[in-house]
Specification:
It is a single chain. By secondary structure, the protein is an alpha/beta fold. It is built from eight helices and ten strands. α3 packs across α4. The structure holds adenosine-5'-triphosphate and magnesium ion. The site of adenosine-5'-triphosphate has 12 residues, from β2 and α1.
Length: 239
């Protein structure tokens, strides 16, 4: 496959924090329009990997290419939506003002209503962010990542604290966006969400243990449940 078909190309990335290898040589490729799930326990390196994709983490080794540009590259960021694990919103502004801000820094002015409707917050657009519930704040943060209709969407545990019904609706939406060409990288611990991804990468101790569809990973581990596949593949790589 030609390189331009990949939205993300990570090659041999190493990132250390002191003696700790947060990323110990990670390589992966994500196709355009693919929903790629990054699955792994706390401290596995998911956030560090996502941060390396936007240039917030500078790897000691390896290379990161996003939308065919070698990172870090500020111009690429206008085409990337990044929902951080900790909601990065202005607490004293309203929901709508936050959306306007994130739209403006990415050079767009429309799309605010649509983004807020996706996350079910249009009727709360006048609320001050600090007065929202935790799940609503997460949803607002997701709307901010979507508002400029990015080509690549990086979602770091986007559905934590979101109620089950909306979680389902959000996943429907992610899949629809992918069908329309948006590439989505989503990190999660939730195995039922993993089933909604086109492909998964299992990550632990800064290493990619295995990659594939749910069915491929289950077959490789010889088990029927994704949880069991994860455990088996973790044990196999530790041995
Ligand atoms: N800025 C930093 N300084 C020092 N250590 C860091 C820093 N950022 C991450 N780490 C360490 O790197 C490792 C990977 O962290 P990371 O946040 O990438 O994990 P994660 O997979 O996102 O975990 P979680 O599921 O808890 O969000 C952890 O051991 C963490 O303590
Ligand atoms: Mg994290």
């Amino acid at each position: 496959m030609a390189s331009e078909d990949f939205a993300v190309e990570v090659d041999g990335v190493v990132k250390r924090f002191g003696s700790l290898h947060a990323l110990a040589g990670v390589s992966l490729r994500i196709r355009q329009g693919e929903v790629y799930g990054l699955l792994g326990p706390n401290g596995a390196g998911k956030t560090t990997l996502i941060r390396s994709l936007v240039g917030l983490v500078k790897p000691e080794e390896g290379s990161v290419t996003v939308l065919n540009r070698r990172m870090p590259n500020l111009d690429v960021l206008a085409h990337v939506g990044y929902m951080t694990q900790q909601a990065a919103l202005y607490p004293d502004l309203t929901v709508e003002e936050n959306l306007r801000f994130f739209a403006a820094i990415n050079g767009v002015h429309g799309g605010i209503r649509e983004a807020l409707e996706v996350v079910g917050l249009w009727d709360r657009r006048g609320s001050i962010v600090s007065s929202l519930s935790g799940g609503m704040r997460t949803r607002c943060s997701l709307a901010c990542a979507l508002v400029h209709k990015p080509e690549l969407l990086l979602l770091d545990e986007p559905t934590v604290g979101v109620d089950p019904l909306l979680r389902m609706q959000l996943w429907d939406r992610f899949q629809k966006m992918a069908r329309e060409g948006t590439t989505i990288l989503v990190s999660s611990h939730v195995m039922d969400e993993a089933e909604r991804c086109d492909r998964l990468g299992l990550i632990r101790f800064g290493r990619l243990l295995a990659e594939g569809t749910v069915a491929q990973l289950q077959a490789r581990a010889g088990v029927n449940r994704l949880e069991d596949a994860f455990l088996k593949l973790s044990e196999a790589s530790a041995a």
